[in-house]
Write a structure and sequence with these properties.
Layout: H1 3-14, E1 24-31, H2 40-45, E2 52-56, E3 62-73, H3 76-85, E4 94-98, E5 105-117, E6 120-129, H4 133-145, E7 160-166, H5 169-184, E8 190-201, H6 207-217, E9 222-227, E10 232-238, E11 241-246, E12 249-260, H7 265-277, H8 279-296, E13 304-305, E14 309-312, E15 316-326, H9 332-339, E16 347-348, H10 350-360, E17 371-375, E18 379-384, E19 388-392, E20 395-405, H11 410-428
Antiparallel strand pairs: 1-6, 2-3, 2-9, 3-5, 4-5, 4-17, 5-6, 7-8, 8-16, 8-20, 9-10, 10-19, 11-12, 11-18, 12-15, 13-15, 14-15, 17-18, 19-20
Binding site for Mg(2+): 284, 416
Family: Belongs to the isochorismate synthase family.
Function: Catalyzes the conversion of chorismate to isochorismate.
Length: 431
């Protein structure tokens, strides 16, 4: 008998306890042995209740699988307010997405939260009611009765019917020229322009299967998958942390500057050395560092900027500088609005760059270049929602962006977004 079955049986038994017919927040935990081949992503994919949320930290140390919503929030501010008003336990986690516009979000307090941290795992059942915990316990019991056993994730198998870029290449090249002309006039120093690629398939795209395929190949990345309902999902594998907070200790980073990667280690190392010494990419990265430090300076203690390093991924390599500090006040709302969108996904200065993006990009970014992760009173962590895709039945929209600064070459920037989009595209299309 597998461990998820035993854990759920234990939680069902807890719901038979006498609970008060009063408002409140209550949870039940059961430890989860890691000695069987349980895959939380496969377990989520077997369910027919929503929302579903999967998140894995890029070093693999932490993994979350959340199923069903006790309550939902349309912004991180509302989620934070809920935790404060309910005087929630320090480890009460709310999961989900923040849109590119940080005022908007899709976050939820999970009915069930499976969590692995290093070698320990647990399954939590969450109850909450603004009138009667007793009533919510009955709702939770009904929810548990509808769960299915985990089953293996079937390999992704789709056939493409058509592929369309927004903008197409010639329009993209014209946009880059327009951006560099605007930079030359001094209206902003940098802008990040993105492309959406719509793929239409003959079969429905299974977001969990795509997430599993990406997780297996796109190493050194955060992996995230938010399944809103049976038809809609948003997922990706991103190398970039927006922030990690432990109490008041904060870690963030500037990930900007890109070159192609290579399967051959020697070739990849040569490309990485070029990236470390390239003036355009170093300038692009330092613009992001300076912007983050400037935004944080009034809300933090001393800021430590670590030396530049090359992050090697499957299709691309990036420059990264980590920034460590201590917050004067532990506030996830503050972190979100200070840091998102960073100069790495919008530009610098932020407002004129965002205005330019809104005027020229032929699509709505929605969740792309927003952030995804979790918050709790004791800690939080969000990654930047890059190398991502929106799934809707038989269609899929891929996103990729490039930072434009003085001296950017339009053809090279097109090749950069091709390389970035290839992280997910190559899993769907066999050229």
């Amino acid at each position: 008998m597998n461990s998820i079955f035993l854990a759920l049986e234990y939680l069902r038994s807890q719901l038979t306890q006498a609970l008060p017919a009063t408002p409140g927040l209550r949870h039940f935990d059961v430890t989860f042995p890691l000695n069987d081949a349980f895959d939380p992503l496969a377990w989520l994919g077997a369910q027919q209740c929503y929302p579903q949320f999967y998140w894995q930290q890029r070093n693999g140390d932490e993994e979350l699988a959340a199923l069903g919503a006790v309550t939902q929030f349309s912004s991180l501010s509302l989620a934070s307010q809920f935790l404060r008003e309910q005087n929630a336990a320090n480890d009460t986690r709310i999961c989900g997405l923040n849109a590119f516009n940080p005022e908007l979000g899709s976050l939820f307090l999970p009915r069930l939260l499976w969590r692995r941290s290093a070698g320990n795992a647990s399954l939590r059942l969450q109850l909450w009611s603004d009138d009667s915990l007793q009533n919510d316990a009955r709702t939770a019991l009904d929810f548990l009765q509808k769960l299915h056993a985990a089953r293996p994730i079937r390999p992704l198998s789709v056939q493409i019917e058509c592929e369309t870029h927004h903008p197409q290449k010639q329009e993209w090249l014209a946009l880059i020229r327009k951006a560099t002309e605007t930079i030359a006039r001094g209206e902003f120093e940098k802008v990040v322009l993105a492309r959406a690629t719509d793929l239409q398939f003959k079969q429905r795209v299974n977001p969990v299967a795509l997430m599993a395929a990406s997780r297996a190949l796109n190493l050194n990345c955060y992996h995230f998958c938010m399944v809103f309902d049976a038809s809609n999902a948003f997922l990706g594998s991103t190398p970039e942390r927006l922030w990690r907070r432990r109490g008041k200790l904060l870690r963030t980073e500037a990930l900007a500057g890109t070159v192609a990667s290579h399967a051959d280690d020697i070739q990849a190392r040569r490309l990485g050395e070029w990236l470390l010494n390239d003036d355009k990419n170093q300038r692009e990265n330092m613009l992001v560092v300076e912007d983050i430090c400037q935004r944080l300076q009034h809300f933090t203690r001393t800021l430590d900027v670590l030396p530049a390093q090359v992050v090697r991924l499957r299709k691309v390599q990036h420059l990264r500088r980590c920034i460590w500090t201590e917050l004067k006040q532990a506030s996830d709302e503050q972190c979100l609005h200070i840091l998102q969108p960073t100069a790495a996904v919008a530009g610098l200065p932020r407002q004129p760059a965002r205005a330019f993006i809104e005027n020229v990009e032929p699509f709505n970014r929605e969740w792309y270049a927003g952030s995804t992760g979790y918050l709790s009173p004791e800690q939080s962590e969000f990654c930047v929602a890059l190398r991502s895709a929106r799934v809707q039945d038989e269609s899929l929209r891929l996103y990729a962006g490039a930072g434009i600064v003085s001296g950017s070459d339009p053809e090279q920037e097109w090749q950069e977004i091709e390389n970035k989009a290839a992280g997910l595209r190559s899993l769907l299309l066999r050229d």
